[in-house]
Design brief:
The chain is built from three helices and eight strands. The two termini are 17 Å apart. The chain has a single domain, classed as 2,3-Dihydroxybiphenyl 1,2-Dioxygenase, domain 1 (Roll), CATH 3.10.180.10. With 134 residues, it is of the alpha+beta class. The protein is globular. Bound molecules: zinc ion. The site of zinc ion has 6 residues, from strand 1 and strand 5.
């Protein structure tokens, strides 16, 4: 598997509306896209930084994964996403190596990317996302 770059950092916020000011007004970044991902019960906002992006994540439901994350650990960096060329091959390779996965198969995430999460127990505590973009 070849990791091409850090695609984005996923940051859990209580509210994008309230949390965005630091990113936009202070750092001068722009929110390029916002999107609700129903399956993950999350509102996402992407802010490009050079070749990578920051993804702000706001839960749309108290029982969503982001709401649970914030309840347990507080707001902050929730995941790191690495871009790969072929996510199916990457997941097969990880399975062969016995790496625990949250998503056994790639699914569609914000922006139409094909993505999958690895289990933090297999990655020294970091929630790692692999993603493939066209
Ligand atoms: Zn992400």
């Amino acid at each position: 598997m070849k990791i091409e770059k850090i695609d984005h950092l996923g940051i859990a916020v209580n509210s994008i509306e309230e949390g965005k000011n630091f990113w936009t007004d202070v750092l001068g970044l722009d929110i390029e896209t916002t999107e609700i991902v129903e399956t993950q019960k999350v509102l996402t906002a992407f802010l490009p930084i050079g070749e990578s992006e920051v993804e702000l994540l706001e839960s749309t439901s108290p029982d969503g994964p982001i709401a649970k994350y914030i309840e347990k650990k507080g707001a902050g960096i929730q995941h790191v996403a690495f871009r790969v060329k072929n996510i199916d091959a990457a997941l097969d390779e990880l399975k062969e190596k016995g790496i625990k996965l949250i998503d056994q198969k790639a699914r569609i995430g914000a922006g139409g990317v094909r993505m999958a999460f690895l289990h933090p127990k297999a990655t020294n505590g970091v929630l790692v996302e692999l993603c493939e973009r066209d």
